[in-house]
Design goal:
Elements (H helix, E strand, L loop, with lengths): L7 H9 L1 H21 L2 H19 L9 H24 L6 H21 L7 H16 L11
Helix pairs in contact: 1-3, 2-3, 3-4, 4-5, 4-6, 5-6
Length: 153
């Protein structure tokens, strides 16, 4: 079972304040990249997990579906990309990676696929977002070695 890094109260607060959560995920992503560049892959892995959890909170925030289509698209892409970042970080760290790290990375990928599938009915009236969700699910199925699909650029 995957351990959650965010406090449940903070996670709920992020869901109630998605604007702040978007800023937080960007800041955490910058820190994760800095740790990756410096070679501290364990900290990079942890920060990528945090990015994924914050991105998940943004995605699950209550908001009108028909509003902010471009914002929803960015949130969906960021959520899937953060899952891939966790997976890639675990693979890059394979010499030091523990079984629990690999299991966590796989759980993040699986959870992301399931959550995207669960969101599909909510976006059924928006074909563009449905197409993006399908592309993201396919990308996640291919895993960390896959190139980013052109539709996501």
């Amino acid at each position: 079972m995957r351990t959650q890094l965010l406090c449940p109260v903070y996670r709920k607060w992020l869901q109630l304040h998605p604007e702040h959560a978007r800023e937080e995920r960007q800041a955490l992503r910058k820190q994760a990249r800095a740790y990756q560049r410096s070679g501290d892959l364990q900290k990079a892995f942890t920060f990528n997990q945090l990015v994924w959890e914050v991105a998940q909170s943004v995605l699950l925030a209550l908001r009108p579906v028909d509003q902010y289509s471009a914002e929803s698209q960015k949130d969906l892409v960021f959520f899937a990309a953060s899952a891939i970042a966790v997976d890639r970080c675990a693979r890059a760290n394979c010499a030091e990676t523990t079984t629990s790290t690999n299991a966590t990375a796989q759980t993040v990928i699986t959870d992301t696929q399931q959550q995207l599938a669960a969101l599909m009915p909510m976006y059924a009236s928006e074909p563009r977002l449905m197409h993006i969700i399908q592309e993201l699910m396919h990308w996640l199925k291919l895993g960390a070695t896959a190139k980013t699909p052109p539709v996501l650029h």
